[in-house]
Design goal:
It is a multi-pass membrane protein. The protein has 616 residues and is α/β, with parallel strands linked by helices. The protein is 62% helix and 9% strand. The structure holds adenosine-5'-triphosphate. Residues 130, 365, 387, 405, 407-413 line the site of adenosine-5'-triphosphate (ATP).
Length: 616
């Protein structure tokens, strides 16, 4: 979609949608025109009935006789029949066009909006996601987009139909009898006012229904995801009772909304009755007194029905409108969320050497927004929250460096900054001399093979998962990477080898198997920089030793950054950096650091069993 939606929340959501939907404007206008024509042809038969009565009553002085110059009554009726057929056909054609247009629009627009919103969400910063429940996002991308679809499918055309109806029928009334028009229109403000009142009172009840539906959904999602824990703790009955409670609340909320909404149409019917009776009696008297043509009288009686009946649907239409508008606002607000981390313009060469450098990098997960820092005390608070406080790191191309430190020291944060999952508050991070923010995100992330602590696999086959970062990789390349990650042997033993489905999040594999596949997945890309964050923590000692040997081989050809708690796994690194309180406090080879008798030496002593005690 070309033009961005105006981000001013004061602008009405429909105007924002209009601004967004540049490609659809012509179709929207066509749909509106078709709907207006459809309504006009739709009320034509009532007019024609009046004209027919006019023919019967006034014969050669009739309306048809005057306009078409046909004097014979039978011929006048043929003329009328011809006009009726034409009006009927045109009504059908315009209805077809109108339906096709609105339905087509609703499909295309909902598809575009959903995809734009989804793409936008994918580009948003990780920090943004951490502040939001994924359930709410799912609601916007799912329910809200569907709500917009329903509004365009049904609501928008109903609004146009109702408006056209009031204007066209009102014009007929005014032309025939201004006094009666006034009387027939009296119920309209009552109906509209009543509808709005109903809406206002129904609104909170519908909101409660949606809220309750959200709770049921959230509970079901959480329980199905944690089914193993539920079983392990024997909590099935308790959980079933919780779901039953939430489900009953949902039903109760719905019942309360239904009780009110069911009363709407009967009440509106009373208002219509008034209008109808007034037209019937007063119009009838005028006809009897000879002040109103019989044909016109019949038109008015039919028209009152025409005018007022569609208004019974006003409540439903307003409901669709309100829900649609609320959904449009939520979707467009999401689309207007600014992207913090944008792709740069520079490309890294495919065979970039992969030197990594951090210079005086400061970072906190909760940066104080500019201008919102407030007076002096804020700076202390910010200082407290800093995870990295002036980090320097120099990893020359092709070397293997390790980062160690206590849990929570900020080791994973360092590699997340390198991947630009977050942006530093100060300092620079560069790959081969290029600041990461100047690099295109795909080329930066494409140069890094990342194996995180979270061994996330997608619901697909082993081969699908291995190809995730390199869709064009050959079977041979997959096998080679799997061999390096000590995964090939167990994959071959799986029922369908590389074509075995791994299940949602890889649940059909063991923790160690998942970990080995995530390592293989990173190696398939043959990246210039390999980042291993606790990559072997879930495998047994034997497998770990085997993976170590393979990694030693692969790390010779590329820059490797390893984060590990088990120091035995990184003792051969070119350099080891000890992270403490947001800075590198010691750097050197294993032997140098042990000899220096500092923090690293203390950690090493604990792990080799020489000393038992706390370290940090
Ligand atoms: N997304 C986040 N939002 C807020 N704070 C975070 C977030 N991720 C990490 N932190 C905090 O930042 C600090 C550093 O976390 P980090 O994951 O980098 O530590 P680590 O050294 O890798 O720890 P571990 O060895 O346990 O993996 C911790 O205090 C942690 O609580």
């Amino acid at each position: 979609m070309a033009s961005p939606a105006p981000s001013d929340p004061v602008v009405h959501p429909l105007r924002r949608l209009w601004a967004y939907a540049t490609e659809f404007r012509r179709r929207i206008v066509t749909a509106v025109v078709a709907t207006v024509l459809n309504k006009l042809f739709d009320i034509a038969p009532e007019l024609l009935i009046g004209v027919a009565i006019d023919v019967v009553v006034r014969t050669d002085d009739s309306f048809v006789a005057q306009i078409f110059g046909v004097e014979d009554r039978e011929q006048q009726l043929y003329v009328l029949a011809a006009i009726t057929v034409v009006a009927w056909v045109l009504e059908s054609v315009s209805q077809y066009v109108s339906d096709r247009m609105w339905r087509g629009l609703s499909q295309d627009l909902q598809h575009d909006l959903r995809m734009d919103a989804y793409r936008h969400v994918q580009d948003l910063d990780l920090a943004w996601f951490e502040d939001r429940a994924s359930g709410r996002l799912l609601t916007i991308l799912g329910d809200d987009v569907n709500q917009l679809e329903r509004f365009l499918d049904v609501g928008a055309s109903k609004i146009v139909l109702t408006a056209t109806n009031v204007v066209a029928v009102g014009a007929v009334f005014l032309a025939i009898s201004p006094t009666l028009a006034l009387l027939a229109f009296v119920p309209i403000p009552v109906i509209i006012g009543g509808s709005l009142l109903f809406q206002r009172r129904l609104g909170p009840r519908y909101a409660a229904v949606r809220e309750a539906a959200g709770r049921v959904g959230g509970l079901l999602g959480g329980n199905l995801g944690g089914i193993a824990t539920i079983k392990a703790f024997g909590a099935e009955r308790r959980e079933a009772a919780r779901v039953a409670g939430a489900s009953a609340e949902y039903a109760a909320a719905n019942r309360s909304a239904i009780a009110l909404s069911s009363a709407f149409v009967p009440l509106i019917r009373m208002a219509i009755l008034t209008g109808f009776v007034v037209t019937l009696v007063l119009g009838g008297k005028a006809a009897l007194d000879g002040n109103l043509e019989v044909g016109l009288y019949s038109v008015l009686v039919f028209m009152t029905q025409r005018l007022l009946w569609p208004l019974t649907e006003l409540g439903e239409t307003l409901d669709l409108y309100q829900r649609g508008v609320a959904s449009i606002r939520r979707i467009l607000d999401l689309l207007d969320t600014p992207i913090g981390i944008r792709s740069g313009g520079r490309q890294l060469a495919a065979a970039t050497p992969g030197a990594v450098r951090f210079d005086d990098v400061r970072f906190s997960y909760r940066p104080v927004p500019p201008g919102a820092a407030g007076p002096a005390p804020a700076s202390d608070a910010v200082e407290d929250r800093l995870v990295l406080r002036g980090l320097d790191l120099d990893v020359p191309a092709g070397e293997t460096h390790a980062i160690v430190g206590a849990t929570g020291a900020g080791k994973s944060t360092v590699v997340k900054l390198l991947l630009r999952l977050y942006a530093p508050d100060a300092g620079t991070i560069a790959v081969d001399g290029a600041p990461v923010e100047e690099l295109s995100l795909p080329s930066l992330r494409g140069a890094i093979g990342y194996v995180g602590q979270d061994t996330f696999l997608f619901d697909g086959t082993v081969a699908d998962n291995l190809r995730y970062g390199a869709p064009d990789a050959t079977d041979e390349q997959l096998r080679h990477a799997a061999e390096l990650a000590e995964a090939d042997a167990f994959v071959r033993d799986l029922p369908r080898g590389y074509e075995t489905p791994v299940g949602e999040r890889g649940v059909k594999l063991s923790g160690g198997q998942r970990q080995r596949l995530t390592i293989a997945r990173a190696l398939v890309r043959d990246p210039a920089i390999l980042v291993l964050d606790e990559a072997t923590s879930a495998v047994d000692n034997e497998t770990e030793a085997a993976i170590q040997r393979s990694l030693l081989r692969v790390s010779r050809e590329r820059t490797t950054i390893v984060i590990a708690h088990r120091l035995s796994t990184i003792r051969h690194a070119h350099r080891i950096h000890v992270l403490h309180e947001g800075r590198v406090v010691e750097s050197g080879t294993h032997d140098e650091l042990v000899a220096a008798r500092g923090r690293y030496a203390a950690l090493w002593a604990v792990q080799t069993g020489e000393v038992v005690g706390a370290t940090g």
